[in-house]
Amino acid sequence: MTGCLLGAYAIGVQAQPFQARIVDAAGNPVAGAVLSLGGLTRPAQTATAAVMDQVGKQFVPAVLPVRVGTAVSFPNRDDIRHQVYSFSPAKRFELRLYEGTPSEPVIFDQPGLVVLGCNIHDWMLGYVYVTEDAAFGVSDAQGQVRLEVPPGEYPATLWHPALSGMQPLPAGQFSSSAEPIELRLPVVVTAPLQPSPPAPSAFADAFRDATREAQP
Fold first, then answer.
1. Among 76, 33, 37, which Cα is nearest to 57's?
2. I need a labelling partner for 36 at 20 to 30 A (CA). Which of 23, 73, 138, 207 fits?
3. pLDDT tens per residue, the chain (216 residues)?
4. Between the CA atoms of 195, 19, 154 and 1, what dihedral angle is there, to the nearest 10 degrees?
5. The pTM is what?
6. DSSP 8-state code for residue 14
7. What is the distance between the alpha carbons of residues 29 and 143, in angstroms, rounded to a whole number?
8. How far apart, in whole angstroms, are the C-alpha atoms of residue 67 and residue 130?
9. Bridge partners for 205 per DSSP
C-alpha cells in the first residue's frame, strides 16, 4: 500500500493527486515512512478495517498506517503459532498463542505509535501508526507515496521508526495540485524496518513445538 484515502470528502469535489518521494539525510529513498495530510474534514462513515498479516515469521506489512477507530485483524498464515502483543501506550493488548485468525479484531482507538512483537519469536517487529488525519500513506521501496485529496493546502506530517524517539515531525504545508515533491528525513536510515529471522534450527523448532503443545 503506497497511499490511502478514506471516504469521499464532498459530492462533486474532484480529488487531485498528491505525490511525494521520501528520502533520508543522505538522499537515499526511504521505505516504510508514513506521510499524512491534516486539515481535511472527516467524512461520515462506518468503522474502517485493516489487516496485519504474519507471514514467514514476520509482520506484513512492516508498517501499517490506520485511522483512529480502525479494526485491525491479525491473521497468522504460518504453520506455527504466534503470540502478538504490544506494550505501547496508544494500545496495549495481547493475542495469546494462536493459529489462523482471531475471531475479534483489535480496535485502535487512540492516536499514536503501536509497536508490535511476538512472545515466541523475539525478532518479529512491526508498527501500527494510528493517525487522526484522513489522508495518509506509507512509502514504497523507492520512497514514493501517492495520495488523492480535494484541491487545497494541507499540513504534512512524516513518521519513520528511525526518527528520534520514533516521534512524528511536521513536514511543511503543501498544495494538492503541486508537482511531485521531495521530503527529507533529518536522519540517515541504515537499519532495516525489520530484523531478519534467524537461520532455521531443527532442534530449536522441535523444542518450541514441544513447549507449545505442553501449554494449556
1. 76
2. 73
3. 454 444 334 434 678 889 999 999 999 999 999 999 998 876 545 458 999 999 999 999 999 999 999 999 999 999 899 999 999 999 999 999 888 888 899 999 999 999 999 999 999 999 999 999 989 999 999 999 999 999 889 999 999 999 999 999 999 999 887 788 999 999 999 999 999 888 776 555 565 555 555 544
4. -40
5. 0.85
6. P
7. 5
8. 5
9. none
